[in-house]
Amino acid sequence: MKLRTALGWAAAALLLAAPAQARDQIRIVGSSTVFPFSTAVAEQFGKTTKFKTPVVESTGSGGGLKLFCAGVGLQHPDITNASRRIKSSEVEKCASNGITNITEVKIGYDGIAIANSKKAGKFDLTLQDVFLALAKDIPDGKGGYKANDNKTWADVRSGLPNVKIEVLGPPPTSGTRDAFAELAMEGGCKSFADIKALKKADKKKYKALCHSVREDGAYIEAGENDNLIVQKLEANPNALGIFGYSFLDQNSDKVQGSMINGKDVTFENIASGDYPVSRAMYFYVKTAHVGKVPGIQEFVGEFTSEKAWGDEGYLTDKGLIPMPQAERAKFAGDAKSLANLSM
């Protein structure tokens, strides 16, 4: 009996010590905004090479980086997509789990659309309108702040539609949510001189005020599935939705983007920087997995090729706004050499 128990313990120890089962398919997680671009590259890669088509999951930027930074080993993803740059806290989390070599690749630009159904009128908003509609606390007109009591868009500004404020958007784990808070919410927040001055006096309070979204039902977290937001906008013409330009472009027969600060969300306006709610997109490679999972270097090469992300590349058909040629050359070089991330 004792011998049998000892043998059992020995067998269990061997199983625990054994390496994870070999994997012959790249695993990619991360941003719902980058998902259609990554999927297009994965499908092209699977069709044109000897490697299997990579598995791409939409988990949100924050969720993807959490999975990516959990450790080295084939049970963890190889690449994560992000619609914002990795945070220093996430780099530290990766390092604490043994991930010290990460290659950063910027893939292009995207605009964040605030869209509604084509069955309704098109909105013409300022960044200040967006802040006053969605912020948790807003100026009270007496030098202080109050809980947001704007119920309709007409309450926000005379001339806007007298319809209930109802905005479907991404959750806190989403890079789109982070970028929206930084570009749209903060952009409108700092249009108030006293709040802009607060940034120097108390940066923490300034950020909390500018980035906090109301929780009384006016903003509805709709998950990481941007296609679902488009479907909900079709069903409710009074609602607006927040998602990447690529989804607006792919669903232009159903939804329309609002004008923001007098600028339409178009390819040209995002590329020129005229559209105020624009951001860069990235993916991150766990270089310790290169050579362990077949095809990672080759997949990265496909993604950073001119036929994919170039001015006439197949990703532009999906709504990607290409980087200038010099910037593409820089990141293609980093990708090829697997350059280590520098913050």
Verbal overview:
The protein is α/β, with parallel strands linked by helices. The chain has two domains: 27-109 and 279-337, D-Maltodextrin-Binding Protein, domain 2, CATH 3.40.190.10; 111-278, Periplasmic binding protein-like II (D-Maltodextrin-Binding Protein, domain 2), CATH 3.40.190.10. The chain has 15 helices and 13 strands. It has helices at residues 2-17, 35-48, 61-68, 88-96, 127-134, 153-156, 175-189, 193-201, 203-211, 226-235, 245-250, 267-272, 296-303, 306-309, 325-337; strands spanning 27-30, 55-56, 79-82, 102-117, 124-125, 137-139, 145-147, 167-169, 219-221, 240-244, 255-257, 259-260, 278-286. Strands 1, 2, 3, 4, 8, 9, 10, 11 and 13 form a nine-stranded mixed sheet that branches. It has a two-stranded parallel ribbon with strand order 5-12. A hairpin with a 5-residue loop joins strand 6 (137-139) and strand 7. Helix 5 (127-134) crosses helix 7 (175-189) and helix 7 crosses helix 9. The chain is globular and about 60 Å long. The relative contact order is 0.19.
Largest sheet: 9 strands, mixed
Total beta strands = 13
Overall number of domains? 2
**Overall pLDDT confidence:** 91
What is the CATH first-level class name of the largest domain? Alpha Beta
What fraction strand?
15-25%
Assembly classification: single chain
How widely separated are the two ends? 58 Å
Global geometry: globular
CATH A-level architecture of the largest domain: 3-Layer(aba) Sandwich
Structure characteristics:
343 residues; 15 helices; two-stranded parallel ribbon; 2 domains; D-Maltodextrin-Binding Protein, domain 2; alpha/beta; nine-stranded mixed beta sheet; globular; disordered N terminus
